[in-house]
Amino acid sequence: MTSTAASTTELENFVRSLPKAELHLHIEGTLEPELIFALAARNGVALPYASVQALRAAYQFTNLQSFLDLYYAGASVLLAERDFYDMTMAYLRRAQADGVVHAEIMFDPQTHTVRGVPMETVFAGIARALREMRDTTGMSGCLLMSFLRHLSEQDAFDTLDAALPLRAQYADVWTGIGLDSGERGNPPEKFQRVYARCRELGFRLVAHAGEEGPAAYVRDALDLLHVERIDHGVRSEDDPALIQRLREQRIPLTVCPLSNLKLCVVDSLNQHNLARLLRQGLCITINSDDPAYFGGYLLENYLASAKALNLSREELATLAENSLHASFLPAARKQELVQRLRDGMGPARPNRGDEPA
Ligand SMILES: Nc1ncnc2[nH]cnc12
Ligand SMILES: [Zn+2]
């Protein structure tokens, strides 16, 4: 083995060994082409692609919308409870192999209810996989039900009303609310009232902002929607006062490097601002967004970022620790996982954050 290959394996083992939380993950974005084809065959759904290879070859995106068009089409194979279970289980197993100890999973019920899939079917399949994984392996997870921002406020209220009767039944997993889909032209203020209602109901709140949309959307997500975390947020850098606020208030950004690359938010990974923001003291976390479409799960996102941005081992451990702090886990479990991470680093940390990994 060459020394580069050996150090790559060592780096991979190091990152895998860090207890990590995945905080920005769309479960519909974990549908691999093979599973899309298998579910299409099982459910008798016709696909406009001749093969798995042809579908994968179509994953060439120019912006967020070009991806979303394919992503919503891919989700059309999900019809039965078992489909949602299989998809979620495949993701959880994969994430666990990457060292994920806790996953906060977004799902888009409107993508399914509009096709006639009952809300209950969506919750039941995803929750069954989460519970089974928790009970058999100890890996925890929770759900962030997300509203599609290209649809109306009324549609979001209707979705909330359709889901609320299930709340008690899924209280152990349904923790929060998210906001996703096409950002430009769909500002946070459009969902101010529905978020106010969700807040009254005691849900934890997150929202996508500053992915393609301006820094002002990040500010509005904080001030109007009262979110606790920002999904993406990379455009915040256009506003130095906002960066200062994010740093001082320790507001986590759930950054998705391979997503940003695939959707042309950045031209190359070595131009990504995550390392700069981390070094300025912001609570940056690394996540995979829609890993089946963007070429990598959580481990690949850490490794690609480490290589492109010369992240030190100390910095990689800080990213993992940030993910635990920024999660919606109970404080005691957070502490336990942070301690496990620190113990795993050993008494002498591998370096002091000033050497590349
Ligand atoms: N990266 C992303 N941005 C907005 N909405 C999404 N839905 C799935 N992935 C998304
Ligand atoms: Zn996302």
Automatic annotation (TrEMBL):
Substrate binds at residue 290. The active site is at residue 211. Pfam families: A_deaminase. Its cofactor is Zn(2+). GO terms for cellular component: cytosol. Zn(2+) binds at residues 24, 26, 208, 289. It is an enzyme of class 3 (hydrolase). Its EC number is 3.5.4.2. One of its GO terms (molecular function) is adenine deaminase activity. Residues 19-342 form the Adenosine deaminase domain. InterPro entries: A_deaminase_dom, ADE, Ado/ade_deaminase, Metal_Hydrolase. The keyword Zinc applies. It catalyses: adenine + H2O + H(+) = hypoxanthine + NH4(+). Gene3D superfamilies: Metal-dependent hydrolases. Belongs to the metallo-dependent hydrolases superfamily. Adenosine and AMP deaminases family. Adenine deaminase type 2 subfamily. NCBIfam families: aden_deam, PRK09358.1-6. Catalyzes the hydrolytic deamination of adenine to hypoxanthine. Plays an important role in the purine salvage pathway and in nitrogen catabolism. PANTHER family: ADENINE DEAMINASE. This is Adenine deaminase. It comes from Candidimonas nitroreducens.
